[in-house]
TrEMBL record:
<dbReference type="InterPro" id="IPR029058">
    <property type="entry name" value="AB_hydrolase_fold"/>
</dbReference>
<dbReference type="InterPro" id="IPR024501">
    <property type="entry name" value="DUF3141"/>
</dbReference>
<dbReference type="Pfam" id="PF11339">
    <property type="entry name" value="DUF3141"/>
</dbReference>
<protein>
    <recommendedName>
        <fullName>Esterase</fullName>
    </recommendedName>
</protein>
<dbReference type="InterPro" id="IPR051321">
    <property type="entry name" value="PHA/PHB_synthase"/>
</dbReference>
């Protein structure tokens, strides 16, 4: 069955590597995407015509099916959490949610080292880590025995929170770790991963184990359209384009702009998802999967402008986290300070964070090599956090090892 998250790639030429030059890479990349988009439209058109001939329906039937398709594409609901939880710490830009079940608050489970999950923060809801009742990263974490479970939910930016900084984010992580026991297993997904890595570098004594999934640590490694675009733009204009976007957002980075960028990176995926909907408009299971994804993907939230501009300058552009030059509030965030067990998960076809960006952490930390786990999941970026295969095959072995290290 075709995934709604990671549609298969067509057999076409791949773009030249970024090492040949960011502009050459971007030109080749978008040329390849154009070919893929045209191929997807051609494939879907053939399927729809064949289906229409097979059904031999009336024009009214065809119109009704088209209306159902259009209605389904427009039907949106706010994403939500599926597992029971309660907010135990709240700030204007983040909630700490406690997913610990009552039966795990006493007895042997009470002694398990708590786990704190830092979700992605790229213009979407943090509920991606609890994507659906059947595709939940949090459920997999609980099933592995890490029952004292917490999540930092990133709230949408407002005019009141547009000046929130990296310091504020690191402070709310530290407050959360202190509140749940003073030391925690930290799991960081994508942007939550580099945030977790910076926190671990500044507070190594508070991190029991560190897990980074699809997290860019060396932002310039591998072949990434985001890295190539940032390098090309900043070489020509510095931060001016990014400041302009934040200005247009009233001091925040608009979530709709981030969404538009993601769609622009892989337009054939958007086309494929909508055309597959038309092909499967009468399949309830497909409709359910479609709505789960679209409700999360298309429901955007803004990012605090000051924080966004900081990360573009210091991480996307200057790549200071991996170089060791990153300084936060007068303190050097040196990954060499990290000595805890390290678990790294990358997607084999991840176009957002290619594996070299994630695995660069292994050479930057001081963790003994035998305590570093590198794992590559089959699939792309979002599949790492919500894909059935990654949740069933790649997360459980790592989480079981973290649990072994976390029991009294």
């Amino acid at each position: 069955m075709t995934s709604l998250v990671d549609p298969p790639l067509e057999t076409v030429a791949r773009p030249a590597p970024v090492s040949d030059g960011p502009l050459r890479f971007l030109l080749d990349y978008h040329t390849v995407n154009t070919v893929r988009s045209l191929a997807e439209v051609s494939r879907a058109a053939g399927t729809v015509w064949a289906d229409a001939l097979t059904r031999a329906g009336t024009p009214f039937d065809v119109a009704t099916r088209g209306l159902r398709w259009w209605t389904a594409m427009l039907d949106r609901q706010a994403p939500n959490w599926h597992l029971d939880n309660e907010i135990v710490l709240s700030t204007p830009f983040a909630h700490l949610r406690d997913f610990t079940r009552d039966e795990h608050r006493t007895g042997r489970d009470a002694g398990v080292v708590p786990t704190l999950v830092l979700p992605p923060q790229a213009g979407h809801s943090s509920t991606v880590v609890d994507f659906s009742p059947r595709q939940s990263q949090l459920s997999v974490i609980q099933a592995a025995g890490l029952t004292r479970l917490y999540v930092l939910e990133w709230r949408p930016a407002t005019r009141a929170t547009r000046d929130i900084t990296i310091t504020d984010y690191l402070e709310v992580i530290d407050r959360s770790v202190r509140q749940i026991g003073g030391r925690a297993n930290i799991i960081g997904d994508c942007q939550g991963g580099w945030l977790a890595a910076i926190y671990a570098a500044l507070h190594p004594d508070r991190v029991h184990t560190l897990t980074l999934a699809g997290a860019p640590i060396d932002f310039h490694a591998g072949d990434s359209v985001i890295a190539a675009s940032t390098i090309a733009l900043t070489r020509a204009f510095g931060l001016a384009p990014y400041r302009a976007l934040v200005g247009l957002g009233g001091g925040n980075m608009p979530g709709r702009a981030v969404l538009g960028n993601f769609i622009h990176i892989q337009p054939h995926s958007e086309l494929s998802r909508q055309l597959q909907l038309l092909e499967n408009i009468e399949d309830p299971a497909h409709l359910e999967r479609y709505h789960h994804f679209e409700d999360w993907f298309k429901y955007t939230q803004d990012i605090p402008g000051a924080f966004y501009l900081w990360l573009v300058e210091h991480l996307f552009w200057r790549n200071q986290l991996i170089s060791g030059a990153l300084v936060v509030d007068g303190r050097r965030a040196d990954l060499a300070a990290v000595t805890c067990p390290l678990f790294l998960l990358a997607g084999s076809t991840d176009h957002i964070t290619p594996p070299p960006q994630v695995f660069a952490a292994a050479d930057a930390v001081s963790t003994p090599r035998e305590q570093i786990t590198l794992r590559t999941a089959q699939g792309g970026h979002l599949g790492l956090f919500m894909g059935r295969d990654a949740l069933a095959q790649d997360w459980p072995p790592m989480l079981e090892e973290i649990h072994r290290l976390s029991i009294p």
